[in-house]
Design goal:
The chain has 8 helices and 8 strands, in the order βαβαβββαβαβαβααα. It is an alpha/beta fold and 234 residues long. A hairpin with a 4-residue loop joins strand 4 and strand 5. The longest helix has 25 residues.
Length: 234
């Protein structure tokens, strides 16, 4: 369903993975949709929309770092989304508007390609291999789905992702899977996993610290972007 804004324009569709990302993205001129870090569920939810009901599609949230120079909180404005099958270009006018809006906001902001994957990239070696294969600066599990949806409907597409786990840091496998279908964290699943593997506690603490930095950066960016996530009017 679409929601026409007060100006009469269609909203921007913000595609996210986590419920916290969707809450941050939401606001005037924005319709947020997510699927709890499950690309197949996201494809189904987007396919269930009878019409796009939006004027642009953006992917927004956190991402894994592939470029070793990036640290938690750094901002990536996508130039393209790269998958094993193909490459989706990002709309240059939206990217340019974001770069202008975010200039001087604090964190490092750079343009670069994002790798789109259907399964979480957890360990350092896998991140390095993905960077070698795609030349991407970061990786996430929603941008390629959003880009494909935008292409099918002839809509502009862009992606803004904040680095969470850097290239030299692994993610505990249970943390990547401990999400409910609505994108909220599954605390019970995390506690059960910790009880089974207490050795994972230090890695989980590091992940929580990195995530905190990433979401603080995303919050600052969101405030800068304003109405319709800063996507220029058509």
């Amino acid at each position: 369903m679409s929601t026409v804004t007060a100006s009469g324009a269609l909203p921007v569709l913000a595609v996210t993975g986590l419920a916290k990302e969707a809450r941050l993205a939401s606001g005037p001129g924005v319709l947020a949709v997510g699927a709890g870090g499950d690309p197949e569920r996201l494809r189904a939810r987007l396919a269930a929309r009878p019409t796009p009901g939006c004027r642009a599609v953006v992917s927004i949230g956190i991402a894994g770092g592939l470029d070793p120079a990036l640290v938690p909180g750094d901002v990536l404005v996508a130039t393209a989304i790269v998958t094993p099958a193909r490459r989706y270009g990002a709309d240059p006018s939206i990217a340019a508007a974001w770069m202008r809006a975010l200039a001087g906001s604090g964190p490092t902001i750079r343009e670069g390609a994002l790798a789109g994957v259907d399964a979480a990239v957890l360990d350092v070696a896998a991140k390095a291999a993905l960077r070698d294969a795609t030349g991407s600066a970061g990786v996430d599990m929603e941008s390629h789905v959003a880009a494909a949806y935008a292409e099918r409907h002839g809509l502009p597409f862009a992606a803004l992702r904040i680095v969470c786990d850097p290239a030299d840091r692994a993610i505990p496998a249970f943390a990547a899977q401990a999400l409910k279908p609505d994108g909220e964290p599954d605390i019970r699943a995390v506690l059960v996993a910790i009880a089974r593997q207490p050795s994972q506690i230090p890695a989980l603490i590091r992940l929580a610290r990195d995530s905190g930095r990433a979401f603080r950066s995303l919050t600052r960016c969101r405030a800068r972007l304003g109405t319709a996530l800063g996507v220029p009017a058509p």
